[in-house]
Amino acid sequence: MSDETQDDEEQAVVLVVDDDASVRDAIVSLLESVGQKTVAFPSAAAFLAAECPDAPCCVVLDVRLPARSGLDLQRDLRAAGNQTPVIFISGHADVAMAVGAMKAGAVEFLAKPFRDQDLLDAVHRALDVDRTRRCEAAALDRWRRLRESLSPREREIMALVASGLANKEVAATLSISEITVKTHRAQVMRKMEARSLPELVRIADRLAARDEAPDASV
């Protein structure tokens, strides 16, 4: 295991939200027994008032909470663009509730009482999901910064190349020479740090999808 992976695992945090102190303490004890850092909250309001850790994390969330339910909190998080993975736990769940939670993006829905190993497995999956999400978000941020270094013409050529046009077709579209297209494309590859044309196309597609996302400005 690399030092980077070890550091990442040490920083990972599980956020436990349950109004039942005995359940909350039991979950914290279980997670800490396997070396997992945890932070616990008695309500949705307490959770929302806290600062979100800048680290891989997930939320172990009771469905039934005072004032705002766990499902309400999940909706609040998604509406705010917070994609932290959620694991629901409940002693009073029905099929419709579980299906609704999973469709809204929950990683798992565990009925109380659940096996310790089931919760540990769910936490492991959720943290892996968040690590992947954070890595992808960091890559997108980096590519967006690199794209800002492109000239307007280079951006045009990047978009046309990513759409599948050959150099000759790009030249005809922009009314410039094919040599000029090749020169600009080489500059785009260098500035975007793309090692191959397929990689440049993948980067351009990812950036385009991010730009078109509803929460792209969040």
Automatic annotation (TrEMBL):
<feature type="domain" description="Response regulatory">
    <location>
        <begin position="13"/>
        <end position="127"/>
    </location>
</feature>
<feature type="modified residue" description="4-aspartylphosphate">
    <location>
        <position position="62"/>
    </location>
</feature>
<keyword id="KW-0804">Transcription</keyword>
<dbReference type="Pfam" id="PF00072">
    <property type="entry name" value="Response_reg"/>
</dbReference>
<dbReference type="InterPro" id="IPR016032">
    <property type="entry name" value="Sig_transdc_resp-reg_C-effctor"/>
</dbReference>
<keyword id="KW-0238">DNA-binding</keyword>
<dbReference type="GO" id="GO:0000160">
    <property type="term" value="P:phosphorelay signal transduction system"/>
</dbReference>
<dbReference type="InterPro" id="IPR000792">
    <property type="entry name" value="Tscrpt_reg_LuxR_C"/>
</dbReference>
<keyword id="KW-0597">Phosphoprotein</keyword>
<protein>
    <submittedName>
        <fullName>Two component transcriptional regulator, LuxR family</fullName>
    </submittedName>
</protein>
<dbReference type="GO" id="GO:0006355">
    <property type="term" value="P:regulation of DNA-templated transcription"/>
</dbReference>
<dbReference type="Pfam" id="PF00196">
    <property type="entry name" value="GerE"/>
</dbReference>
<keyword id="KW-0902">Two-component regulatory system</keyword>
<dbReference type="InterPro" id="IPR011006">
    <property type="entry name" value="CheY-like_superfamily"/>
</dbReference>
<dbReference type="InterPro" id="IPR001789">
    <property type="entry name" value="Sig_transdc_resp-reg_receiver"/>
</dbReference>
<feature type="domain" description="HTH luxR-type">
    <location>
        <begin position="143"/>
        <end position="208"/>
    </location>
</feature>
<dbReference type="GO" id="GO:0003677">
    <property type="term" value="F:DNA binding"/>
</dbReference>
<keyword id="KW-0805">Transcription regulation</keyword>
<dbReference type="InterPro" id="IPR036388">
    <property type="entry name" value="WH-like_DNA-bd_sf"/>
</dbReference>
